[in-house]
């Protein structure tokens, strides 16, 4: 029997979440962001569920190639643009649109000869100070691109640093509007957080919602059912469904005496006699090692907690709530790390929050050794 760990990808959930994003997007077209192997879900597995998108955005040229091999003939956008001159030939061969965020990329474009071969998204640094031209540099970068024979169209984009938090997007939106004012070309601004908090479906839509939504929106995490704010309650309020389940089983049970310790470093001590289950999932599977005692986990449909340190291949879980609910909690009992199983659900964001991280990181960290099925 194989080790009883299994990840499941839920294409119906991805399809549903894409429809939610589209409904929030109004008239704008939707880039499905599938970077990092579709946030750990697998491009091959996610693609059939997301093919109703208007385009796919990612940043690895090999992933772009994989999408073309899957038969996607529509738009593909490279979110970090080209990493070197050679990549421009790949863009021509695969017909990839690409972001231009640095003068080096404009220089490489100036060396290409194929007329109007490149459709680019010029990126404004609207305050995040990661990628993009400053508002002062933006127009001259745009003019420079316009003059290059190899460039066949220039769109405008920015990325919000604080769309998920109380600071919101007002300042960034002002900088973007001022920088692109009067320039022709499509616009793209929104990630999941901006789309869901301020888009067409928002509780109190903004007066400038159509400016904000622009021509293209770029949801990522929402497609996979994760919350862009880190709060499981928000994903629920937006009616997103979990795209990934990580399920394993109990492989051993210990009767731990009062005062005895559990796991490496004796990181947990039992206050009273208790039964502890050993589940076949560890940090080598992508379960976060920094998950503290108390991190939620579901055994046999009953919500409980991990106790003691996460090790490479195992975690130890408190079986008392499971037994109190009248369940057996024995070798073979199912253990839901996140996602859904039978009637039980555990939001990946809840697990992430307990670990001081975000659902994005847990999805992306799903380890290659975990077998993945599509339901
Ligand atoms: C990753 C990314 C997105 C998607 O962000 P989510 O928070 O996952 O919706 C959108 N735009 C850019 C430029 C990105 O890098």
Give the helix/strand layout:
Elements: E1 6-9, H1 11-24, E2 29-33, H2 35-39, H3 43-50, E3 55-58, H4 61-69, E4 76-78, H5 86-94, E5 97-100, H6 103-110, E6 118-124, H7 135-147, E7 151-158, H8 170-180, E8 187-188, H9 192-198, H10 209-213, E9 216-217, H11 232-237, E10 244-256, E11 261-262, E12 268-269, E13 274-279, E14 296-299, E15 302-305, E16 315-318, H12 320-324, E17 334-341, E18 344-346, H13 348-354, H14 359-364, E19 372-374
Pyridoxal-5'-phosphate is lined by residues 33, 35, 79, 159, 191-193, 218-222, 228.
* Number of E strands: 19
Runs with pLDDT <50, length 5+? Answer: none
What is the SS-derived class?
alpha/beta
**In percent, how helical is the residue content?**
25-40%
Describe the model.
There is one protein chain. α1 (11-24) packs across α3 (43-50). The protein has two domains: 11-224, Alanine racemase (TIM Barrel, Alpha-Beta Barrel), CATH 3.20.20; 244-374, Lyase, Ornithine Decarboxylase, Chain A, domain 1 (Beta Barrel). It has helices at 11-24, 35-39, 43-50, 61-69, 86-94, 103-110, 135-147, 170-180, 192-198, 209-213, 232-237, 320-324, 348-354, 359-364, and strands at residues 6-9, 29-33, 55-58, 76-78, 97-100, 118-124, 151-158, 187-188, 216-217, 244-256, 261-262, 268-269, 274-279, 296-299, 302-305, 315-318, 334-341, 344-346, 372-374. With 375 residues, it is α/β, with parallel strands linked by helices. The radius of gyration is 23 Å and the shape is elongated. Strands 1, 10, 13, 14, 15, 16, 17, 18 and 19 form a nine-stranded mixed β-sheet that branches. The protein has an eight-stranded parallel β-sheet with strand order 8-7-6-5-4-3-2-9. The protein has a two-stranded antiparallel sheet with strand order 11-12. It binds pyridoxal-5'-phosphate. Pyridoxal-5'-phosphate (PLP) binds next to α9.
């Amino acid at each position: 029997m194989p080790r009883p760990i299994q990840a499941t990808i839920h294409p119906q959930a991805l399809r549903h979440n894409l429809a939610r994003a589209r409904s929030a997007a109004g008239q704008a077209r939707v880039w499905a962001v599938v970077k990092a192997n579709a946030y750990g879900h697998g491009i091959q597995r996610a693609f059939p569920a997301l093919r109703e998108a208007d385009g796919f955005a990612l940043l690895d040229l090999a992933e772009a190639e994989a999408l073309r091999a899957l038969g996607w003939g529509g738009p593909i956008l490279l979110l970090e643009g080209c990493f070197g001159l050679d990549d421009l030939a790949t863009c021509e061969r695969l017909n990839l649109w690409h972001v231009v965020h640095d003068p080096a990329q404009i220089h490489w474009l100036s060396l290409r000869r194929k007329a109007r071969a490149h459709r680019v998204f010029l990126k404004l640094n609207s305050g995040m100070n990661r990628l993009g031209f400053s508002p002062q540099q933006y127009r001259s970068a745009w003019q420079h691109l316009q003059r290059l024979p190899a460039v066949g169209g220039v769109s405008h984009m920015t990325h919000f640093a604080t769309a998920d938090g109380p600071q919101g997007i007002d300042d960034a939106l002002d900088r973007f509007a001022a920088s692109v004012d009067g320039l022709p070309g499509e616009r793209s601004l929104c990630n999941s957080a901006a789309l869901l908090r301020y888009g067409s479906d928002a509780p109190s839509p903004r007066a400038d919602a159509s400016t904000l939504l622009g021509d293209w929106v770029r949801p990522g995490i929402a497609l996979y059912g994760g919350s862009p704010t880190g709060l499981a309650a928000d994903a629920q309020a937006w009616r997103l469904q979990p795209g990934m389940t990580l399920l394993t089983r109990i492989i051993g049970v210990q009767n731990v005496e009062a005062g005895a310790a559990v796991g490496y470093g004796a990181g947990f001590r039992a206050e009273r006699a208790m039964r502890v289950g050993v589940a076949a999932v560890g940090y080598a599977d992508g379960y976060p090692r920094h998950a503290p005692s108390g991190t939620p986990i579901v055994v046999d449909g009953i919500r409980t907690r991990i106790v003691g340190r996460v090790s490479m291949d195992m975690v130890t879980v408190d079986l008392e709530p499971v037994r109190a609910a009248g369940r057996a909690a024995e070798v073979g009992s199912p253990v839901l790390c996140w996602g859904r199983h039978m009637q039980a659900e555990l939001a990946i964001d809840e697990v992430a929050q307990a670990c001081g991280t975000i659902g994005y990181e847990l999805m992306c960290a799903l380890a290659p050794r975990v077998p993945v099925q599509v339901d």
